[in-house]
Amino acid sequence: MTINTYVKEASYGKTMVRFMKKDVCPESKVHNVYEMDVQSMLSGELDESYTKADNSIVIPTDTQKNTIYVFAKNNDVSVLEVFAAKLAKHFVDRYKHIHGATVDVTITPWSRLTVRGKPHNHSFIRNPSEARKTHVAFTEGKGFDVVSSLKDVSVLKSTGSGFNKFHKCEFTTLPEVDDRIFSTNIDCNYSFNHFATLDELASYDFNHAYETVKEITLDTFAMDDSASVQATMYKMANQIINKLLVIAEVYYALPNKHYFEIDLSPFDIDNRGPNCSLYQPQAYPSGYITCTVARD
Questions:
Q1: Rounded to two decimals, what is the model's pTM?
Q2: Can you tell me the distance from the alpha carbon of 85 to that of 201, in angstroms, rounded to the nearest whole number?
Q3: Which residues does the annotation say bind O2 (predicted)?
Q4: 172 is catalytic
Q5: For residue 150, what pLDDT is reported?
Q6: 25, 163, 201, 213: which one has the fewest Cβ atoms less than 10 Å from its Cβ?
Q7: Where residue 182 sits, what CATH number does that domain have?
Q8: Structural domains in the chain (count)
């Protein structure tokens, strides 16, 4: 017996398309560099390329790669979200059987090098503990949905965090603690309200939004007298939504990277509680806490 099947969903594209673009200001001769990793994915009337091996409707992924390069050469790339939106719309406008496109962009964070107290015109240093990303989806006749991200920011504070009065059962061995090391690797996605047109999207200051999300996240981490990872991440997300009205929801994933007290009692040394100054970093297991906070 043959069971009937159908293509429920399909898309394809090119991933890990990398480039470095250099922009030079004609007047000041100051350089800016943008190293990016781009992925494009197309969807539409593609079923027969799967079910009937009809390649006539397949836009080669190599063509998508070349399109990304040409767009990067001919367009401003300084705002990830706008560049991604223009590229996604191009794919849908250019090919009549393509009705949707998503573009993901990750930028490598090169910061201007300070030399003898002044920013250097054309020298940069990489910050390995930060990644900025965006995911832009364009649907024909509907518009744009944008989710941007602050990722891979490793932070630690040596006090200002505790964890107590938690639920206990027969399997609980964790002691309550009023003061502990709080370390995590920040993963934050922030989703924007729907943009109906490219002009509406392009008029928004996405770079300011990114800097605001980063500032609130790091300031709250440092300043909050943290009762738990859960409580701190909610404060972060709540402030972002109240500060940036165009953001609809914020997602955080914060692994709790543990540092445990080292027992030195066999050597008659007190390294417990308020006398603890020596900790054992724990590679695994770690806590993993997530939360999505949305506008009501």
A1: 0.91
A2: 8
A3: 61, 256
A4: no
A5: 96
A6: 25
A7: 3.10.270.10
A8: 2
Which class for 186: exposed (0-12), middle (13-18), buried (19 or more C-beta within 10 A)? buried
CA-nearest of 14, 71, 13 to 42 is 13
Q: End of a domain among 88, 123, 141?
A: 141
Residue with tokens 């490793």: 154
Catalytic residue among 21, 61, 139, 214: 61
Is 235 annotated in the active site?
A: no
Task: Select which of 86, 89, 90, 258 is catalytic.
Answer: 258
Question: Are residue 50 and residue 190 in the same domain, yes or no?
Answer: no
Residue 2 lies inside a defined structural domain of this protein: no
pLDDT digits (tens, 9 = 90+) for 147-179: 999 999 999 999 999 999 999 999 998 888 888
Range of the domain at 107: 9-141
d(CA 281, CA 30) in angstroms, rounded, equals 43
133 is annotated as an active-site residue:
no
For residue 285, what pLDDT band results from cuts at 50, 70 and 90? confident
